[in-house]
Design brief:
Blueprint lengths: L1 H21 L1 H4 L9 E3 L3 E3 L8 E7 L11 E9 L8 E5 L5 E5 H12 L6 E12 L7 E2 L3 E6 L9 E3 L13 E2 L1 E2 L6 E8 L2 E6 L8 E4 L6 E4 L10 E3 L3 E8 L4 E6 L9 E4 L7 E2 L1 E2 L6 E8 L5 E7 L9 E5 L7 E10 L9 E4 L1 E8 L4 E6 L7 E3 L13 E2 L1 E2 L5 E8 L2 E6 L10 E3 L12 E2 L1 E3 L9 E3 L3 E8 L4 E6 L1
Parallel strand pairs: 2-9
Antiparallel strand pairs: 1-3, 3-6, 4-5, 4-7, 7-8, 7-9, 10-11, 10-14, 12-13, 13-18, 14-15, 14-17, 15-16, 18-19, 20-21, 20-24, 22-23, 23-28, 24-25, 24-27, 25-26, 26-29, 28-29, 30-31, 30-34, 32-33, 33-39, 34-35, 34-38, 35-37, 36-40, 39-40
C-alpha cells in the first residue's frame, strides 16, 4: 500500500513539474498542435479614400515547441503567388505574439515597394507562417499556404503646392506656395490667399513641374499630368484679382475655387473679469487666418465671470468688440457672434461662464464661437517606429504627468523614424491623437503647435526623427503644443 501511495505522489509531482515547464517564458504556454494560418478576408480591395482603415488581419495557432520549454519565433511571409515567396513581405514575432494587422495605406505601400506590384493593379498573393523553436535543434514548422486576391491603388501625394503667374511667386517651382491638408479628408488640400489675373496649377514636389494637377474638362475638375511627355498642360485662369480659397480633392479630382472676403482682423484679444480686464492675445490658426483660439485656466474671485473679445487692446469707444448675440450667454458650440463698438451700440453684451479650464475657438468666417470646458486625458503615449515600443499601440510608451494635469513629459532614447502621440491607446486606432502640423516635420527643439484629432489620426501627420539619440519631450494638452529636444 505504501508503494502505491508513493507512485501516486510521484505522478502528481511529475505533472506539476511538466506544467511549470510549459509556463516558463513569461507564463506563455505553447501547447502542442499544428501550425495553422487564418486571414480576416481573402478578397482585399484597398481604398485610397480610407488610408487608416483596417485592410487585413492574419492570425495563427501556436504550433509546438516539442516539449522543449523553448520559446517560438514566428515569421509571417506574404508573396506573389507562384514566386515561392521571393521577394516577400516578412514580419517576425516573439513572446507569444500571433497576429498581424495591416491598415490600408501601409499594406498598399508594402505591396508596391516590397513585392513590386504595380500601383492600381490586382494581384494574387500567398501567405504562410514559419515557426522556429528557439532550442536550436527542433524542426522548423510551416503552416499551410493560403491564397488571397488584392487590388492596390495609386497613392496620392501627401504634399501639394500652387504656382503660376496668378500667384505671388510666379512660375518658380522652387518657391511654389504649400497647400494645407484638410483634416479628416484624405487627398484633400486647401489654400487661401491673393490671386492676381493670370494662370495657376498644382505640383506635388517642390522644384519639379511634374507630376502636376492641371485644369480638367472644366473649372471644377483636375487633370493629372504624370510626366513632361504628356502634351496636355492646361492651367486654370484667374480673370479678377482678389482673395481666394482653393480646395482640391486629389482622389475624386475635384476643385472648388471661391472668391472670399479676407479676415477682418489679424489679431484679437481676450479680455474680462478672468484677466482682471487686461488684454490677453488669442492664437491665430497658422493654417487658417479666420480661426482664433484661447485655451486657458480661467480663474476669478467669483464662481462665474464675464468676457468679450477685443479687436484692439484698447477700451476707446471706437474700438470694435466681438460679443454674444444675447447678453450673459454661457458655454456652447457654434454660438452666434456680433461685433460693434460702444459708439455704434451701447449694449455692452458679454459672455458669462463658470471659472474653470476652457478651450475657446472663434471662427471669423462664420461669425461663430465655441466655448467648451476642457478635461485633460489622464495619459499620453508615444507611438511610432522612432519610439521604444514601435507601432504596437497596446504597449505604447507612456509619458509622465507634469506639473499640471494637462502637461506631460518624457525623456529617453528615440530611434530614427516616425512619431505621434495617442491620448487613449484605442485598439482600432480611431481614438484621439496629437499630430504634427505637417507630415514629416522634423522636431525643431522649439515649442510648436500640434493638431488635435478627436477621432482617428486625420491628417496622419507624424514627426520625423532623423537622428537617433536621447530626447526630452514636453507636451501641453491645453495649449496643444509640444517641445521635442535632442539632448
Amino acid at each position: 500500500m505504501k508503494r502505491l501511495y508513493y507512485i501516486i505522489n510521484l505522478i502528481l509531482i511529475s505533472s506539476l513539474f511538466c506544467q511549470s515547464c510549459k509556463d516558463d517564458f513569461g507564463n506563455v504556454i505553447y501547447p502542442d498542435g499544428p501550425l495553422e494560418l487564418s486571414v480576416s478576408t481573402s478578397d482585399i480591395v484597398l481604398n485610397v479614400a480610407a488610408p487608416e482603415q483596417e485592410a487585413v488581419v492574419f492570425d495563427w495557432t501556436s504550433g509546438s515547441n516539442f516539449g522543449t520549454n523553448a520559446a517560438i519565433k514566428y515569421t509571417l511571409e506574404i508573396g506573389e503567388k507562384g514566386k515561392d515567396f521571393k521577394p516577400s513581405i516578412n514580419s517576425t514575432f516573439e513572446k507569444g505574439l500571433r497576429s498581424q494587422r495591416y491598415v490600408t495605406k501601409d499594406f498598399n505601400q508594402l505591396l508596391i515597394e516590397k513585392l513590386g506590384i504595380t500601383a492600381g493593379s490586382g494581384a494574387q498573393l500567398e501567405a504562410r507562417v514559419i515557426a522556429e523553436t528557439q532550442d536550436g535543434q527542433s524542426a522548423t514548422q510551416l503552416s499551410q499556404i493560403i491564397s488571397l486576391k488584392i487590388k492596390t491603388y495609386k497613392p496620392v501625394t501627401e504634399t501639394l503646392y500652387i504656382l503660376g503667374s496668378a500667384t505671388s511667386n510666379g512660375w518658380d517651382a522652387n518657391k511654389a506656395s504649400r497647400m494645407n491638408p484638410i483634416q479628416g479628408t484624405p487627398g484633400a488640400f486647401i489654400w487661401q490667399g491673393v490671386l492676381s489675373r493670370g494662370e495657376f496649377k498644382f505640383i506635388s514636389t517642390l522644384g519639379n513641374f511634374t507630376p502636376s494637377y492641371n485644369k480638367g474638362t472644366n473649372n471644377e475638375k483636375l487633370y493629372y499630368r504624370e510626366s513632361e511627355s504628356d502634351p496636355y498642360d492646361v492651367p486654370f485662369t484667374v480673370a479678377k484679382s482678389g482673395l481666394y480659397q482653393v480646395k482640391v480633392n486629389l482622389i475624386d479630382r475635384s476643385i472648388v475655387i471661391t472668391e472670399i472676403e479676407g479676415a477682418m482682423y489679424d489679431a484679437l484679444w481676450f479680455v474680462g473679469g478672468f484677466t482682471g480686464w487686461s488684454f490677453q492675445p488669442m492664437v491665430k490658426d497658422p493654417n487658417d487666418p479666420f480661426i482664433f483660439t484661447y485655451h486657458a485656466v480661467l480663474n476669478s474671485n467669483n464662481s462665474t465671470d464675464e468676457f468679450k473679445i477685443a479687436t484692439k487692446p484698447d477700451f476707446d469707444p471706437s474700438v470694435v468688440f466681438l460679443r454674444p448675440e444675447t447678453d450673459q450667454q454661457g458655454v456652447g458650440t457654434d454660438l452666434p457672434v456680433v461685433k460693434w463698438s460702444e459708439s455704434e451700440n451701447k449694449n455692452d453684451y458679454k459672455w458669462r461662464i463658470n471659472k474653470g479650464i476652457y478651450k475657446i475657438r472663434l471662427d471669423l468666417r462664420a461669425n461663430k464661437i465655441t466655448i467648451a470646458p476642457f478635461t485633460s486625458f489622464p495619459a499620453i503615449y508615444l507611438v511610432g517606429d522612432a519610439t521604444p515600443n514601435g507601432w504596437d499601440i497596446a504597449t505604447a510608451t507612456p509619458m509622465v504627468k507634469g506639473d499640471t494635469p494637462h502637461r506631460f513629459t518624457w525623456s529617453g532614447t528615440l530611434k530614427a523614424g516616425e512619431l505621434k502621440f495617442s491620448c487613449d491607446k484605442q485598439a482600432d486606432w480611431n481614438g484621439a491623437w496629437f499630430l504634427a502640423s505637417q507630415n514629416g516635420r522634423t522636431p525643431s527643439g522649439q515649442t510648436e503647435q500640434m493638431i488635435f484629432s478627436k477621432s482617428g489620426s486625420n491628417p496622419d501627420n507624424k514627426w520625423k526623427v532623423t537622428t537617433a539619440g536621447t530626447y526630452s519631450i514636453i507636451l501641453d494638452q491645453l495649449q496643444e503644443t509640444v517641445t521635442i529636444i535632442k539632448q
